[in-house]
Amino acid sequence: MRPQSHDFVARAAAALGDARLQTVLRGIDARFVAARRRALDDLPEYEALRTRAAGIRAHVLDHLDLYLERFIDRVEAAGGRVHLAEDAAAARKVVVDLCRSAGVRTLTKSKSMVGEEIAINEALADAGITAVETDLGEYILQLADEPPSHIVAPAFHKTKEEVATLFARFHGGTPRREEGADLVAEARAVLRERYFAADAGLTGANFLVAETGQAVLVTNEGNGDLCQSLPRLHIVLASIEKLVPTLEDATTLLRLLARSATGQEITAYTSFSLGPRRPGDAVGPAAFHVVLVDNGRTAMLADPGLRPLLGCIRCGACINHCPVYAAVGGHAFGWVYPGPVGAALNPALAGLAEAHPLPAASTLCGACAEVCPVKIPLPDILRHWREKSHRARLSPVGERLGVRLWAWLARHPRLYHPGLRLLAAGLRMMARGGAIARLPLLGGWTRRRDMPAPEPRRGRFRERRE
Amino acid sequence: MSRVLARIRAALGVRGDAPARRRAVQERLRRHPRGPLPGWATADRETLLAAFRARLEANRATVARVPDENAAVAAVRAWLTHHDLPLEAVVAAGLAALDWAPLRIETRPPGPDDRVGIAIADLGIAETGSLVFFSAPDAPITLAFVPETHIVLVPAGRVAGPMEAIWAHQRARFPNLPPRSVTLVSGPSRTADIEQTIEFGAHGPKRLHVVIIEAQSSPSVARWASAGASAERS
Question: What is the pLDDT of residues B125-147, one digit of tens each?
């Protein structure tokens, strides 16, 4: 997927005008926000778990080299192989080569955000290998030829009617079905044949346990387990920061993951996979490979401002609680990861020149950091990128001049305070009924809402000075 | 050393051989300390069993509690008949010795046409309402995913409180090499990918029926009883 983050402003404007998308986005609260709240209300240990989880992630990142060595050792002791890939191209080559040398023609795939990041489906298609997405949301998007708009619910933006139309078009010969249950049953029947016919299964991993070499995968559909138990080759595709030290550490993170993501205590399926089938086993892959991708992670590890972001467990809570995401949806963000985590990650992974509009598109309200189960200081990271954008002259000229003017004023209090009073008085003159309907130079801001008029002179400005 | 590993060390500003770092890692792996546990997870047996059942039902499984294996077989047959399901099942090898007739059983990995799979859980976890399966030659994990109806027998003595019991069990029973797959099943397969409405049977089972067996003495259950006790003690 080619990043489109540079075009955020235009994409966001289009999303705001998309009535169908706006209806869909209003569902976030009921589906995710309320469900998470209920789950956490039932877990008095939440804050203690969260502190513990943040500690686990910091510890593993500080010792990532040693845990990685241990993980490789354990996987190989179980008869598997671990491949380390420096960038997206190297990772694609490893996966394609593994498939080619095993004579793979079709592959079933369970949802993998790293797979989206490195565009693995395109690489497999170029190699003549048919990759079939099996997560229902990803399957719908594969038919629609669209990228995901949410990391947990990738087809969040699709309506039932759109799914019905896609299925009627691609599942040749079946009558059009309209009911959700019938559509799920239809996809089940189609994909069932794919699982049994596939030569290889490709899955992501939620965690990699250094202690034992086990790769942890959570799903609600069970598609990941069919992908990893039926075909003769199983490839786990994950990024290097998925490591956790021990099974107990994985358990602590699992207690937070589903609750933060969908408000479930646990997903329907949680599996810990290690190596190929054992002597006597009747099922399971004959070969087991883990492909671990760097693709910009080590650069983040080296930057103290960005390192905490590698602690992310991809629950999506920050996305679900973000007012910007709620207004424009996932596609406006223009790349694999939307919402606050995307605004923080995409500049590191796709480049600041590409993604600089994302960290700028935030009110820094802090909701993301408040709900993050591993306490990632997302607003700080957005500010970090804003500073870099400013220094690299990537932010708009008007914004840079404005900031410079303000900085100059702020260093000259004799001008700053009278200047502010003058500005406040001017704004009050423009106000009608306490609100300003249109601001010169800031039309983009006032087009969709009023600017509140500043309080009178004896109010806030004066108090602050004293 | 691989280039990725070298880049990680450069990023962290460390060398691989610093003894203090190695010790910190070795120590954590050796002690594998627990995080905070849900408070009730150390409750008494009957409370745990009640919680196990309640969480399974919250996960949309159906649950029966029976005194012994023969009653379990009868309960499974009755449940299948009641749900208008075929009296044909693929079962885990450990269950083949029971007298299932008139239910016809086969012990093999399930194929796409098999509609009912019957397995024994190695553990039950009350904290999350989960059934735990360690893959083995006589217990193909596909039993939990391929048939549209998944029936699981679980001896009451195998029900533990928190998820950490799984790891105590795994370390005791497989000290050198964990099984190829350790799977927690917490309800039937589900999806909310079409307009955020939950539908069951997305790819895996549409129904999950759990039969809790009280007796510890019956032969098929005995094989698991000792391991269950060790998981509980830890």
Answer: 999 999 999 999 999 999 999 99
d(C-alpha A81, C-alpha A88), whole Å: 19
Among B25, B197, B203, the residue with its CB nearest the CB of A63 is B25
Return the structure tokens found at A154.
Answer: 């990738």
Sign of the alpha-carbon dihedral angle for A236, A237, A240, A242: negative
Contact B180 A281 (CB under 8 A): yes
CA A290 to CA A235: how far, in whole Å?
Answer: 6
Report the distance separating Cα A15 and Cα A5, nearest Å. 14
Domains of chain A, first to last = 43-297 (3.40.50.10420), 410-465 (no CATH)
pTM score? 0.93
* Residue among B21, B36, B194 whose CB faces A48 most closely: B36
**How confident is the model at residue B223, as a pLDDT?**
44
B69 Cα to chain A: minimum distance (Å): 26
Tell which CATH architecture fits domain B42-233.
Answer: 3-Layer(aba) Sandwich (3.40)
Looking at the DSSP bridge assignments, the partners of residue A75 are none
Token pair listed for B6? 């070298």
Whole-angstrom Cα distance, residue B82 to residue B76? 10
Instruction: Kindly state whether B1 is in contact with chain A, defined as any CB-CB distance less than 8 angstroms.
Output: no
Residue A211 backbone dihedrals phi, psi, to 5 degrees: -50, -45
List of chain B residues with pLDDT < 50 = 218-234
Query: How does pLDDT run across A172-195, given as a tens digit for each residue?
Result: 877 899 899 999 999 999 999 999
Question: Which ipTM was obtained for this model?
Answer: 0.93
Write down the domain spans for chain B: 1-33, 42-233
CB B122 within 8 A of CB B133: yes
* Torsion angle, alpha carbons of A430, A436, A442, A445, to 10: 180
DSSP string for A278-307: PTT-SSS-SEEEEEEE-TTHHHHHH-TTTG
Cis omega (within 30 of 0) on the bond before B102? yes
